[in-house]
Amino acid sequence: MSVKIYKETYFEASHRLMHYEGKCSRLHGHQWRVEFWVEGDVPADTRILVDYNLIKKVVEAYDHQVILNEDDPMVECISKFQDVITTKGDPTSELLAEIMVFELEEKCRDAGLSARVVKCRVYESVSCFAEWTP
């Protein structure tokens, strides 16, 4: 039986965009909102496509973190005081959506689930988001 589920979750994190001219080139924070739409075949034994807590764990890994481009010179300095999540490229909402989709799908595969993400939205604010679709 094929099913679709939806999960909305939040995290707080700071980032900066090295290759952007404007305010976002400075280190700043957001309350990020992440929405996942997932579909697939439900296992007959559990009747659960994906545990909502699995989705939440993917997003929680970013909570109260500093997220920077791996080439950002701030990484070396901030890493002396706390962990830094680095990305290949500026940590835009577009890139974070792609990364989180990959991470969730990898966790689903590892758990033997046939679930796949059909859409993911990452909001930097209430009025703007990036949407990932396959």
TrEMBL record:
Pfam families cross-referenced by the UniProt entry: PTPS
Keywords: Lyase, Metal-binding, Zinc
Xref: Gene3D superfamilies: 6-pyruvoyl tetrahydropterin synthase/QueD
Cofactor (UniProt): Zn(2+)
Keyword Chloroplast tagged: no
MF-aspect GO terms: lyase activity; metal ion binding
InterPro entries in alphabetical order: 6-PTP_synth/QueD (IPR007115), 6-PTP_synth/QueD_sf (IPR038418)
Protein name from the UniProt record: 6-pyruvoyltetrahydropterin synthase
Organism: Methanolacinia petrolearia (strain DSM 11571 / OCM 486 / SEBR 4847)
